[in-house]
Amino acid sequence: MLKDEIGKYYFDGNYNCAETIIRAGNDYYNLGLHDEDMKMLGVFGAGIQCGNTCGAILSAASILSMKYIEKNAHESEDIRPVTVLLMKKFQEKYGSHLCKDIKPQSFSKETRCLNTVETACEILEQTISEYEASKS
């Protein structure tokens, strides 16, 4: 499971939610990203640093890009429907896509946003599984 990969990044590496998801996803899905590539997503943590769209969601969507876009998004038949499904699942779970709305539901001083990161992993895996099943 994807969430089995997060401990080494979230706690041991002290990465934020966005960094943890992309690093764990890189391992789990064999995305072939390098450390320098993944640094780009660091800014997404804490809702793009200002409580906006949740960094865990943004990194999950970035994983979908790596999985479903071969050259560019305009030529991908998959990226829109799979991303819409991902966003719908987050909306159903939290009632929002915004960090400022999600954080009060799952943040604790001891574990920070671990609950959101774990949930994002579960939602991402469900999304990919359901999407792939719908294509068959």
Describe this protein's structure.
By secondary structure, the protein is mostly helical. The chain has one domain (2-135). 65% of the residues lie in helices and 0% in strands. The chain has 8 helices and no strands. It has helices at residues 7-10, 17-29, 35-38, 45-51, 55-68, 79-94, 99-106, 114-135. Helix 6 packs across helix 8 (114-135). It is globular, with a radius of gyration of 14 Å. The two termini are 22 Å apart. The model has no long low-confidence stretch (mean pLDDT 96).
Question: What are the SSEs and their pairings?
Answer:
Blueprint: H1 7-10, H2 17-29, H3 35-38, H4 45-51, H5 55-68, H6 79-94, H7 99-106, H8 114-135
Feature tags:
globular, 136 residues, mainly alpha, 8 helices
Describe the structure in brief.
With 136 residues, this protein is mainly alpha-helical.
Put simply, the count of helices is 8
> Which range does the strand content fall in?
under 5%
Distance between the termini: 22 Å
The helicity comes to 55-70%
| Count of extended strands | 0
Shape: globular
Major sheet: none
Tally of separate domains: 1
The secondary-structure class comes to mainly alpha
Work out the radius of gyration: 14 Å
Order of helices and strands: HHHHHHHH
| Low-confidence region ranges | none
| Overall pLDDT level | 96
